[in-house]
Amino acid sequence: MxxxxxxxxxxTENDKELSVFSYSKIEVFKxxxxxxxxxxxxxxxxxxxxxxxxxxxxxxxxxxxKGRMVxxxxxxxxxxxxxxxxxxxxxxxxxxKEKLLGVYQLKKKYFEVWHEADNASGASYDxxxxxxxxxxxxxxxxxxxxxxxxxxxFEFVWDDKVIxxxxxDRIDVKGDQYRTVDYKTSKKIYEQSKLATSLQFGIYxxxxxxxxxxxxxxxxxxFILIDDEQYxxxxxxxxxxxxxxxKVFGEIEVSEKKEIFIPKPSPLCHWCNFCQTNPExxxxxxxxxxxxxxxxxxxxxxxxxxxxxxxxxxxxxxxxLVF
Length: 323
Fold this sequence. Notes:
This is PD-(D/E)XK nuclease family protein. InterPro entries: PDDEXK-like_dom_sf, PDDEXK_AddAB-type, Restrct_endonuc-II-like. The protein has helices spanning about 1-5, 25-30, 35-40, 50-70, 80-85, 105-110, 110-115, 125-140, 200-210, 235-260, 310, and strands at about 10, 20, 90, 100, 145-160, 160-175, 175-185, 220-225, 230. With about 325 residues, it is an alpha+beta fold. A hairpin with a 2-residue loop joins strand 6 and strand 7 (about 175-185). Helix 2 (about 25-30) crosses helix 3 (about 35-40) and helix 4 packs antiparallel against helix 5. The protein starts with a helix and ends in an 11-residue tail after the last helix. The mean pLDDT is about 95.
């Protein structure tokens, strides 16, 4: 733990020139440096949305409201929670900036896909909502762990180089022990290889250490639309996390110095806002030429255009480095 403590410290006024990273920003770079360039360097932010994003935000919000009721010692008002789930809400908070559509509105907005079974769980969105209702009644009923913090904001400096910032879905407390919980609306659980050194939960653990002086003893992915869960961070994760963060920030520094952001075409292109194969992409859908042609119905390794370093070096706008 001491090695981790040596790498983190609170953010001060003198740190305002440091680059700010969230877990999702780091993950974008790892998945595709070119997407990182479009989104975070060229600032091509898209308002594109999807049924998965909107339903996910809604379910997160409903669980957050239950958590606050439990934490405040109130009887859980399931009528109120069901009303939010079905009709949405216009309330906003630090993380949720816009109103959330409820199931009734989402069903109309995405009527073409609402009743389709997905290719992983085999469930339609009607079935997923029913499963979520089951999860809603089961979650946070453990009397041993007390849900205490919800959408908990955090920020700290890592290695005097960058600010790590974000929100933790839920933090439970038992005496002087902590556990972090992240809600997922994925179609399936993760491969075991993703769990041992979860970068997301590793960063959350650093946030707990920064604020409370201890590491969490449990880190749980809760899959709220398929009613499953997985534990992350296996023995020795601390050293592996340091190595992983050093590696990715080193790669980002090299990319920015050389102004080279190499695309990584993969099935993930189908959900990228800069890719033509993404049915939800709008204003930036023609931005990338190097996308994978993979789709859920046409599984192929073919790419639209192969990357050529000689043609593409130097096409990135110059940016002040802060590493």
